[in-house]
Predict the structure.
Amino acid sequence: MTISSADFEYIRKLMHQHTALVLAEDKAYLVESRLTPLLKEMGVHTLHQLVRRLKTEPFSSIHQQVLEAMVTTETFFFRDSEPFKMLQNFILPDLLQQRRSERRLCLWCAGCSSGQEPYSIVMLIQEHFPELSTWDLTFIASDISGDILARAQAGLYTQHEVSRGLSPALLQKYFQPQGKTWRINHNLRQKIDYRQFNLANAWPTLPTMDIIFMRNVLIYFDVPTKQHILARVRQVLRPDGYLLLGGGETTIHLDTAFKPTQFNKSICYRLRS
Ligand SMILES: C[S@@+](CC[C@H](N)C(=O)[O-])C[C@H]1O[C@@H](n2cnc3c(N)ncnc32)[C@H](O)[C@@H]1O
C-alpha cells in the first residue's frame, strides 16, 4: 500500500509535533510498512482514510497508536558489547570507589525500549558487582511508548530476542522458559522503576544520576531538540557522573559542557569541571 506525499507530510508533522522525532523525507516506505498493519484495527481500508480520521478527530488513542507504531524501537541485549565492558571495567569500579561512603547509586536508562538494555545492565551488576546488592540502588528506565514499556515490564522475550546478544549461560541463569518464550526473573524485573515520558517535553522530577544511558535515541531528533535534551541531562547528571550515548551519537558540536572520554574502544561523556 502506498501513501500520497500529502499524507506522508501530515504523518511527519504529527510525529515531530508530538514526539520531536524527525522522519526523513525518503522514509515514506516506513510509514507504509508500519501503519498498514493498523488499518483493520482502526476500521479503515487505506492509509488515506487513516490520515483523514487523524485529521478530523481530536487527538486520541488512535493518534497515540499511530505514533507508537512509527517509533523505532530496535534494541537487543548487550547491544554493541563495548559500552558494557566500559561499564564493567571502568565506570562502575570508579563509582564504587567514589560513592563508598554514601553507598548509593542512581542509574537512568532513557529510551529503554522493550527492556533489553536495562536488563543487560542489571545482569552485569549481578554478575560482577554483588556488593551493590547492599547499596541503595535506584534504576529508572523510561520511554515515550506505553506499549513498549509494558513489554519491558513484562520481561517476556521470544527465542529470537534472547538469541540476540545474550549468552546461553545468562539465559539459563536469569530467565525461565514460558511456552515458546522466556521471562526474565522477577527479582531482576523489580529492580527497575519504569516511567513513561517524552524526553522532548517537561521531565518529571528525577534524582541526580550517576550514570545516564541515552543510547540510540538522540539520533532521531533535530539539532535544537538534541541540544535541549543535553542541556537537561546536564542538570540531572552528577558532576562526576557518566553519560553513555549510542555509537552514532555524540555531544560534539552540540554541547561543549560535555567532554568525550575514551576507555579502550568506547567513549562516554563527562561534565567539564
Ligand atoms: C532505537 S530504540 C533504542 C533502545 C535502547 N536504548 C538501545 O540502544 O538499544 C529508541 C527508543 O527511544 C524511544 N523514544 C523515541 N523518542 C522518544 C522521546 N521523545 N522520548 C522518550 N523516548 C523516546 C523509542 O520509543 C525507543 O524505544
User: Anything to note?
Assistant: The chain has a mean pLDDT of 97.
